[in-house]
Amino acid sequence: MENTGNHTAGGTPIPDATGKLSPGSPSEPIPFGKYWLLGLIARGGMAEVYRAKMQSKPDRLLAIKCMRPQLAKEARFVDMFIREGKLAVILDHGAIVKTIEIGRIDGRYFIAMEYIGGKDLTQVLRRCQETHQRIPVPHAVYMAAKAAEGLHFAHVLTDAEGRPLNIVNRDVSPSNVRLSYDGQVKLIDFGIAQAMLKFTSEIGVLKGKFSYMSPEQIRGMPVDARTDIFSVGIILHEMLTTEKLFRGDTEFALMEKVRKAEVTPPSKFNRRVTPELDAVVLKALARDVGDRYQTAAQFAQDLNSLLANYRFDPSELKEFVRQLFRADHQKEETEIAACLAAGVAPVPGQGGPPARTPQPSADSRLRREDQTQPDEMPEISVTQEPIATAPPRVQQTVTPSESKAPDKASGGFWSKLKAKFGKDGAPSK
Asked: For labelling alongside 346, which of 14, 198, 225, 377 has CA 20 to 30 A away?
């Protein structure tokens, strides 16, 4: 069989000697099912992320998150990965990274999502510290408002029958807030977000990052949307002060500080913070959930009201991020241009013919994206078949005035998921 650069003539990617998937590059795209792989972006403990694009839509750049093969041998990791993907495809909001499809190609589970060129908030905060800068107050307020709006959408999301899913992220931190070079604010990685119906046996298990947890989460108590509000409050405080709110020399000391939730107003560190903004931050960070904002929409509404006083234009955030990472932005622009040209025309400076589009192998059975809805729960044993794809966009209006907390989830999408995977989240026998 002919080998054309770490993939077969039939279009099936070939792993290298270590079993890793060949990442590809703009000059040598690697076919992965109906996608091109165009280079590795990041590698984590559970998955690797690649730049990619669909062969049928070469003008749109994507990110593909592939589960590590060694983890795919354990059912619990596969279950976790699939749950993350099935949840992500229904989170269709401008402040949440859009997931297009979750599937399996030649035994490799993957999640395909929109590509966001930029930096996460952790990187922005670190660069500000290194260069002795602060995030301007209106920029910080705007980012927190967008994060709250995205979370509220998830908190009040319902299934096809109108029943609340009761989604709580529980892992809101700067590393999960993506800032694009175009000034967009996107929440990423709802990997441990749970519907309250599921994983009830996991109440008391600490997840996420201690520094950004709520007091009730640290105590192992049941959590709801208000725990995410507290986490956004921590992030906003950190953006305004350029200092972590909760710190400790030991894990125990850190957890104690979170439990007590003693918060110094950000104006004590930043004289540009107004008393009105202090009050909003402190309400979001109230130790008792009853004293907090009861919905993320209320939190976002107050932030947006304050933002109106600054006459802030979102393009200012774009310029701020680009100024902080000028060299990185220029490099990324060049790489994106090369990726978009890959497989369509020769990459400038590389020469050679364009990469050829592989033909699907005889045993591959691909479905059109719009044929599989997230709540249909198709079997996952078929090679190169979607597990779930994003449904057509539905206009779901979420107004800032909404104040009703989510009810218990039941029926619809999650009841089918429960029936398939069992009451405690484990695959049913």
From this structure: 14
pTM equals: 0.76
Indicate where the chain has its CATH 3.30.200.20 domain(s): 30-117+332-421
Q: Is 106 a catalytic residue?
A: no
Catalytic residue among 171, 189, 228, 302: 171
HSE-CB of 289 using CA atoms within 13 angstroms: 18
> Given the DSSP bridges, would you call strands 35-43 and 167-168 parallel, antiparallel or unpaired?
unpaired
CA distance 42 to 145: 28
CATH topology for the 121-322 domain: Transferase(Phosphotransferase); domain 1 (1.10.510)
- pLDDT tens for residues 36-79? 999 999 887 778 899 999 988 888 999 998 888 877 788 888 88
136 burial level (CB within 10 Å; 0-12, 13-18, 19+): middle
* pLDDT tens for each residue of 137-169: 999 999 999 999 999 999 999 888 999 988 898
